[in-house]
């Protein structure tokens, strides 16, 4: 059973698309985490990807990298994020997915991280610097706690690897839409639709598209051939500018994404 997968399927079974905003925990201070999460869930997002700032973020483009630097300058750590989430866990109604690199989890201790993260509302984790082959370091303990380990599938994976990653992924499959780093893009490769269908053919776990998606039209276009989208940089920028209108428009696009 996966709470994350269930949350996504309950949205798609009604004809809507899943919408997962990414936020950088600690950007603007950890005291912003609670109001931001409560407001996002009130807008009807499916889940929330909570980014943990890290000193050496391999996959992050300039927007997320700068947000991470601001959060680190505020003293944000994985432990403080979990503690903060825990302080209002009874008000959290959507599954949270922590986006963190492997080192902070190991430094925390896999056992205590899993137990405390679960209590704090974290239902999934994405660990971009951990190859599938090494996931046994954390997977059994996360699994015991009922936390999904979400795999990223890149455009350049070989078909065999794509199949293995897809079948291993829990909650949803994070299908990366571009080669490279996070951040807004104006165009995408033409073969994406076929690529996504191929990934979906291996599994009944929903496939979500992420990287480069920043406009309502892009949300609709991707929604037409997968179960939903993840939007990061555009959300991070909008939160800095307190531009909730833009966020509302992105969420609304997923609700009417069916063509
Ligand atoms: O910012 P974008 O292009 O909208 O992409 C989402 C992305 O930011 C978020 O999911 C994310 C932030 N950092 C990551 C590192 C690896 C994988 C994914 C992420």
From TrEMBL:
- List, alphabetically, the InterPro entries matched: Aldolase_TIM, RibuloseP-bd_barrel, Trp_synthase_alpha_AS, Trp_synthase_suA
Listed under catalytic activity are: (1S,2R)-1-C-(indol-3-yl)glycerol 3-phosphate + L-serine = D-glyceraldehyde 3-phosphate + L-tryptophan + H2O
Query: What does the record give as EC number?
Result: 4.2.1.20
The alphabetical list of record keywords is: Amino-acid biosynthesis, Aromatic amino acid biosynthesis, Lyase, Tryptophan biosynthesis
Pathway(s) it belongs to: Amino-acid biosynthesis; L-tryptophan biosynthesis; L-tryptophan from chorismate: step 5/5
Work out whether the entry's keyword set contains Lyase: yes
Question: Does the record bear Cell division in its keywords?
Answer: no
Give a Gene Ontology cellular component term annotated to this protein.
cytosol
An example Gene Ontology molecular-function term:
tryptophan synthase activity
EC primary class: lyase
**Residues annotated as catalytic:** 49, 60
Q: Which Pfam families does this UniProt record tie to the protein?
A: Trp_syntA (PF00290)
What this protein is reported to do is described as: The alpha subunit is responsible for the aldol cleavage of indoleglycerol phosphate to indole and glyceraldehyde 3-phosphate.
**Similarity comment text for this entry:** Belongs to the TrpA family.
What do we know about how this protein assembles, alone or with others?
Tetramer of two alpha and two beta chains.
Name of this chain's protein: Tryptophan synthase alpha chain
| Annotated source species | Ureibacillus yapensis
């Amino acid at each position: 059973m996966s709470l994350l997968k269930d949350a996504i399927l309950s949205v798609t079974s009604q004809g809507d698309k899943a919408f997962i905003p990414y936020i950088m925990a600690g950007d603007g201070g950890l005291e912003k985490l609670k109001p931001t999460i409560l407001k996002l869930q009130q807008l009807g997002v499916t889940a929330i990807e909570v980014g943990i700032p890290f000193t050496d973020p391999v996959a992050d483009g300039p927007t997320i990298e700068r947000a991470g630097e601001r959060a680190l300058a505020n003293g944000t750590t994985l432990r403080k994020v979990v503690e903060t989430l825990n302080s209002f866990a009874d008000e959290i109604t959507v599954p949270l997915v922590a986006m963190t690199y492997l080192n902070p989890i190991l430094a925390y201790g896999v056992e205590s991280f899993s137990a405390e993260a679960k209590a704090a509302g974290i239902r999934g984790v994405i660990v971009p610097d951990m190859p599938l082959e090494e996931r046994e370091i954390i997977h059994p303990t996360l699994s015991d706690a009922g936390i999904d380990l979400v795999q990223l599938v890149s455009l350049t994976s070989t078909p065999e690897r794509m199949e293995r990653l897809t079948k291993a992924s829990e909650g949803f499959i994070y299908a990366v839409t571009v080669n490279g780093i996070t951040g807004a893009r104006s165009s995408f490769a033409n073969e994406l639709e076929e690529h996504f269908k191929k990934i979906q053919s291996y599994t009944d776990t929903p496939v979500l598209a992420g990287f480069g998606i920043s406009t309502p039209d892009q949300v609709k276009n991707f929604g037409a051939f997968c179960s939903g989208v993840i939007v990061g940089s555009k959300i991070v920028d909008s939160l800095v500018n307190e531009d909730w209108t833009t966020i509302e428009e992105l969420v609304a696009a997923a609700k009417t994404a069916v063509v």
